[in-house]
Write a structure and sequence with these properties.
By secondary structure, this protein is mostly helical. The chain contains 6 helices and no strands. The chain has one domain: Four Helix Bundle (Hemerythrin (Met), subunit A). It is about 75% helix and about 0% strand. It is found in: Membrane. Keywords: Membrane, Transmembrane, Transmembrane helix.
């Protein structure tokens, strides 16, 4: 099994945990400042916090949620590539590209949050994911 591709997988998992800490460090003080007592909340939804808190306090949480979405496909395709023995070389570089772009996207969304540049970063990372998916399909169906 070629494991180079698993390194960016671990880095993105670690980055997701960094964003979780960032989310807590941003949101908990904002909740306190807004007079919201977490111990008294029952059944709240994400939109409730969006309405109660300043936008900038929500941005890290929004990004954390994004890291629970498309990256799940990345994790799956990276494992397929590793299991098919095609996880080194170009595929590893594509995986590092995906992770780097997602990290830049996270920092940008959690700080500046301009949609145009965020969209460009998202599309660029998605193109890496598309290439990885095609390579995984080639390895599985033509390997």
């Amino acid at each position: 099994m070629q494991q180079d591709i698993l390194k960016p997988v671990v880095v993105l998992i670690a980055w997701t945990l960094v964003m979780w800490v960032w989310m807590l460090a941003t949101r908990l003080p904002a909740l306190k400042a807004a007079g919201i007592d977490l111990t008294k909340l029952t059944g709240s939804k994400t939109g409730d916090a969006d309405r109660a808190l300043p936008p900038k306090a929500n941005w890290p949480a929004h990004n954390y949620n994004h890291l629970m979405e498309q990256p799940t496909i990345f994790y799956a395709v990276a494992i397929v590539i590793a299991l098919t023995g095609t996880g080194n070389g170009f595929n590893a570089w594509l995986a590092w590209g995906y992770v780097a772009l997602r990290i830049v996207h996270s920092v940008f969304q959690a700080t500046v949050n301009k949609v145009g540049p965020r969209f460009v970063l998202f599309v660029a990372s998605t193109l890496c994911l598309v290439a990885l998916t095609l390579h995984a399909a080639m390895a599985v169906f033509h390997g």
